[in-house]
Amino acid sequence: MRILILGGDGYLGWPTAMHFAALGHEVSVIDNYLRRNIARETSSEPLFEAPNLIKRAALFKELTGHSIEVFISDCADYDRLAEVVQKTSPEIVVHYAEQPSAPYSMQNRHTADLTIFNNIGTTFNLIWAILEHAPDAHIIKLGTMGEYGTPNIDIEEGWLEVNHKGRQQKFLYPRQAGSLYHTTKVLDTDLLWFYVRTYGLQVTDLMQGPVYGLSTVESDLSQDLMPNFHYDDIFGTVVNRFLVQAVAGVPLTVYGGGGQTRGYLNLKDTLQCVELAASNPPAKGELRILNQLTEIFSVNELAEKIHRVGNSKGLEVTIKSIDNPRKELEEHYYNVEHSGLTELGLQPNFMTDEVLGEMLDTIIKHKAAIDVEKILPRVRWK
Amino acid sequence: MRILILGGDGYLGWPTAMHFAALGHEVSVIDNYLRRNIARETSSEPLFEAPNLIKRAALFKELTGHSIEVFISDCADYDRLAEVVQKTSPEIVVHYAEQPSAPYSMQNRHTADLTIFNNIGTTFNLIWAILEHAPDAHIIKLGTMGEYGTPNIDIEEGWLEVNHKGRQQKFLYPRQAGSLYHTTKVLDTDLLWFYVRTYGLQVTDLMQGPVYGLSTVESDLSQDLMPNFHYDDIFGTVVNRFLVQAVAGVPLTVYGGGGQTRGYLNLKDTLQCVELAASNPPAKGELRILNQLTEIFSVNELAEKIHRVGNSKGLEVTIKSIDNPRKELEEHYYNVEHSGLTELGLQPNFMTDEVLGEMLDTIIKHKAAIDVEKILPRVRWK
Hints:
The structure is a homodimer of 382-residue chains. Chain A has 382 residues and is of the alpha/beta class. Chain A contains 12 helices and 14 strands. In chain A, the strands form 4 sheets. The first copy, chain A, has a 7-stranded parallel sheet, with helices on both faces. In chain A, strands 9-11-13 form a 3-stranded mixed sheet. In chain A, strands 6-7 form a two-stranded antiparallel ribbon. Chain A is globular, with a radius of gyration of 20 Å.
């Protein structure tokens, strides 16, 4: 199949591109290096430098024989995106092309402006590029579990059947996110749902939990094919950040009470989920929403896991609660329906001690590169 | 009080400006003539030409002694809006500065792009201009009843208390609008709700039904102070359009079955509602949502009313159903809670035969100016 990946340089985009190429699909990627630029701007570079996308694709071709066509271009510019869609004529488009950092979106007006107009812009442009140039393509959009926030009722899979005064209505599950970044994903969902029901687009919206991991079958082929591994306060997700703190010998910094509970998944399972969505498309005019996570943990549970595994490797891991820079509930109800991907065949890679241990081993090799200045929160929700 | 009105040249903006100025408030308006430009671009000029905003304000000053300060500037440009907010230091901001036509938003990619980025842009810029330069101001935002769509349960006033599997959660009432324009208002509400709960803004979001009317106390002073009266398919709301059709001797064009049911209100009541919201501000950190309508009618009921009143004036009014250019339910449940404004003291001006008769009399004076080419739908939701 012809697959176009928007945001193909990212933590998820690049492993996804290699995964589909290795399966024999015709893969193209587009990226404007926005995340690399923001990482430099905010002094949040990843633990090890990844070669640029053109070089990574060339190396991947050399090692596996599989091609990935690279477009360095901006999806927020309609003409440039439309040109790539016309050239590649995709059957599937995977949309990761968004500014992905919650703290960056909350830093100031300029970063908020960039986040909202980039993210709505890439989604809006993609909708129109598909309507105009590839109307039968299946859009697979990366949303986030953060769209739902932490309501006091069960989080259902995208939709909520409401019984009210003796009558019934099925709604898009009401969303209330905790950062501007997460709110842009809410706006994306609203927008996709409008265009799906009005123009008959075919969309899968994946509500993904925080991802951890360093290893996929293809990235294991070479250090230079590994995903960008961020451990900073801007781009680093909590598990990756804690593991680096464990290696660096600084306390695992729990924000506030540590009861914040979320659904997590291994990077390998992101690839599996996107592949399952691609091979099982929704109908035309259907917005299919899948909650993409495999296990639920509180921040304290994560810290304790990493404390245990780190100490078993001779690291002296400590845990420290710090003032929560975010505005969020630190104790809350959290029960999430997520059977959709399991029914499609997802075989989870759980967060075992072995998995965490292997990640620690990789990070230990790069210990000298860790910059502890990047770890503590530099942005507060005020 | 110091009141700044965004979109002060509009059908609602200009009468609101005069109303507050006549009450003795210090009123400023900002407008970039976007609606006038789109009206010319789409050949949808109003029934009679309104002088430009500077001339209207000068005439109003001459006739009443009350000043309205005019800024011809673009709220979608942050620096220009921030400059006006700094200069005027408002205690209340009334935000009408949006592209208001559903058909225009559905015409093509360019008009969709203009609508979404103008509307999200003005709202986002206003949020930040208030945060940075007038943090204690009360924002009164014009939303639309169209945000809710036509769900099969009662439409509550902004919020929905959900009982689900034995647990409870109050959500922003789930919204599902029928055009891209209406969807931009859904996005506005999502965005305002995020900034209200995170940064403590003080916001009233008015979910307004379609407005009809030509007359307010101040606009009655001179033909040149009257609101822009649109009867075309792009900007004309259904009652205004039907009245012009009655005068022009062309059939009242009901879209499809005519069972589409909405809540309506008189232009005079828009002024009353905005004034009531202004004198009864919500708390800091509160998003107060009020459903702004006074009576509920189906399109068929409206057509029959205007048929009756028109014929009593010797007009030969006929009614004709045409293919519905929109994608909407033509028969649906519609029961709307709207007690909030009544509790604040709203005294409705109902759609009586007398009110419709007076509107017909005014339109008859301008009969020669009616261009019947503008009336039939030129945009289809496809």
